[in-house]
Design goal:
This protein is an alpha/beta fold and about 575 residues long. The protein is built from 18 helices and 20 strands. Strands 1-2-3-4-5-6-7-10 form an eight-stranded parallel sheet.
């Protein structure tokens, strides 16, 4: 049996060859009698970059009672760790644990021995500081002893990462139909018992795919559910491959779609089963490589987004804190947001203010000036004279604005260093422009800031944006929940975070929560909100880890911005 492993990232349903090839890794299994160094060398010649090795001979059924220990005194458990240098164990080897032990035996002595053997091998794996420890799970309904061993192992081994081998589709008993959800339930039970420990990962066995014309390939909902899990490796059986009339080895389109959906940046690919070819498993590995090479190159947006996927960020507080130059720079790289703002301002100038000879525009929270430039470009397109004020409280951003006025804008723009809520404007604005929306719309105090500044707008003036609505959606998000759980702090679960959602599963459609309108005509102005939302029942069994927040915003008339999945402004990555 040969194994091949590759690290492959995922961009929703889009994949790119450039990103794949940058992180590709491949590996192979060591045979029991192989020397560590020689096997690694041979694997390297074939293009593999690490190996999977049995920690102990898989047929070494041993008892760890005192009599057995005495009888085997002086005989080593397995090979010495000195056959490889330390860094090679850590980066080049995944240790495979024995699976002959009977954890659920009716005999206590056998159960105790199974636990002792399991922990013995885990100690050795931890001693070697391996890349990971691969272990099969048992597929019986009652497996309490087996699960408790994992919990003991996690407490015992420190930083060792566990790869739990689970079939994506459990084989049905005779006369039973396929149950695509049973394997996930097995994994989920183990995960819950171990309190979502971030060291647990899935080594997912993909179905053969050829039986009954892909009937073993799960529906999209099951694939999406597995995609949200911490998949460390995918196992592709050689039976999944077929040969065309021309003698070319291929995977079906349905299989490739499933495979790409489950592949992420930290995923390894394992090709398992006997090879039908004289050259070994090379033809199968070539199929996988060809899939990646046929994908389009990485877009600039993908390169910017990738580091932020599933990464917890504290929400910005621009009212309280002065943003850094790099933060402004990330905002300004967005290709969609400022285009939409420019369109909205231009349309307002050409419709509502068509008869005006000169229009006064006030940009509040001007930052380094991207909205000022949008306003000036819109004025040129609409052939309208403008008086523009750029209001900013950040003294560091003021330096950038002052340089822009000196070298770029001249008398077209008046730069003002002030808090928008306290600024005494020399004249009222026809249009007030701002970009204060947070990921949940109001979570960065956009309503409070705009309500405090709206007195600057003329009675017939407008605000861009004119409104915003926040949305909530229940989601399963094992990866982020595990990261929060690893902190050991209750506060972590009570803090709202900004996250570029990636490996998650929506459990129901998003629903509207709070709406805000600008200018706000309420008297007195009151932004207190509360709401009760009822969501539809989830279609697939899963765990509710939290809620995703989104917003929709109208800039002017039919021009808007949205991060809500149904109405998402395609291509936008900052707001």
């Amino acid at each position: 049996m040969s194994f091949s492993f590759e690290s492959l990232p995922l961009s929703n349903s889009r994949h790119t060859a450039a990103t794949f090839l940058a992180s590709t890794a491949s590996g192979r299994v060591l045979r029991e009698k192989s020397s560590g160094c020689s096997a690694l060398t041979r694997a390297g010649r074939l293009g593999f970059q690490f190996v999977v090795a049995d920690l102990v001979h898989p047929r070494y059924n041993r008892r760890l009672n005192e009599e057995e220990k005495h009888a085997r005194s002086g005989i080593p458990l397995t090979r010495s760790d000195m056959i490889l240098a330390g860094p090679s164990w850590t980066s080049d080897v995944v240790g495979r644990l024995s699976d002959w032990m009977n954890y659920e035996s009716k005999k206590k002595s056998q159960r105790t021995n199974a636990t002792d053997v399991f922990l013995q091998e885990l100690r050795w794996a931890s001693h070697l500081t391996l890349l990971g420890g691969a272990c099969k799970t048992s597929y019986v309904q009652k497996q309490h002893e087996f699960w408790k061993n994992y919990l003991k192992g996690l407490r015992l081994t420190g930083g060792l990462k566990f790869w739990i081998q689970v079939p994506m589709v459990a084989k049905p008993l005779p006369f039973e139909e396929l149950d695509f959800g049973s394997s996930w339930r097995t994994w989920n039970d183990l995960r819950l018992l171990c309190e979502g420990d971030h060291r647990l990962g899935v080594c997912l066995e993909l179905p053969s795919g050829n039986e009954k014309k892909n009937s073993y390939i799960p529906p999209k909902s099951i694939i999406d559910k597995w995609n949200a899990e911490p998949i460390k490796a995918l196992i592709i059986p050689t039976k999944a491959f077929t040969m065309t009339k021309e003698g070319i080895v291929v995977l079906s389109e349905e299989y490739i779609s499933m495979f790409l959906r489950l592949t992420n940046a930290d995923t390894r690919i394992i090709i398992s089963g006997p090879s039908l070819y004289a050259e070994g498993h090379g033809p199968y590995l070539s199929v996988i490589q060809n899939i990646f090479e046929s994908l389009p190159g990485a877009t600039e947006q993908l390169k910017i987004e990738t580091p932020y996927r599933d990464f917890l960020q504290s929400p910005l507080q621009p009212l309280m804190d002065n943003l850094k130059s790099q933060t402004y720079e990330i905002f300004e790289k967005d290709p969609i947001k400022y285009s939409q703002y420019e369109k909205a301002i231009c349309k307002a100038l050409m419709t509502k203010f068509k008869s005006y000879e000169t229009v006064c525009i006030v940009v509040v929270g001007a930052g380094r000036g991207p909205l000022v430039r949008c306003a000036l470009r819109a004025g040129e397109k609409a052939e309208k004279k403008l008086r523009v004020y750029a209001v900013e409280k950040n003294p560091n951003a003021m330096i950038t604005l002052q340089n822009a006025k000196l070298n770029e804008w001249g008398d077209k723009v008046t730069v003002v260093h002030a808090d928008m809520r306290e600024w005494k404007a020399p004249e009222k604005a026809d249009i007030m422009v701002s970009e204060l929306l947070g990921s949940f719309g109001d979570n960065e105090l956009s309503p409070e800031c705009l309500d405090g500044a709206q007195w600057v707008i003329k009675s017939d003036g407008i605000s861009i944006p004119s409104d915003s609505t926040s949305y909530l959606q229940p989601i399963a998000y094992p990866k982020v929940w595990g990261n929060l759980n690893a902190t050991g702090l209750l506060k972590s679960f009570e803090t709202p975070y900004v996250v570029l959602l990636h490996r998650h599963v929506p459990l129901a459609e998003s629903k509207a929560a709070f709406s805000f309108f600008h200018p706000n005509d309420e008297k007195p102005v009151d932004n207190t909100r509360e709401i009760t939302i009822e969501f539809s029942e989830a279609k697939e069994e899963n765990i509710l880890h939290g809620f995703a927040g989104y917003f929709e915003s109208t800039l002017f008339e039919d021009i808007g911005l949205s991060i809500r999945p149904k109405t998402f402004s395609e291509g936008m990555f900052s707001w």
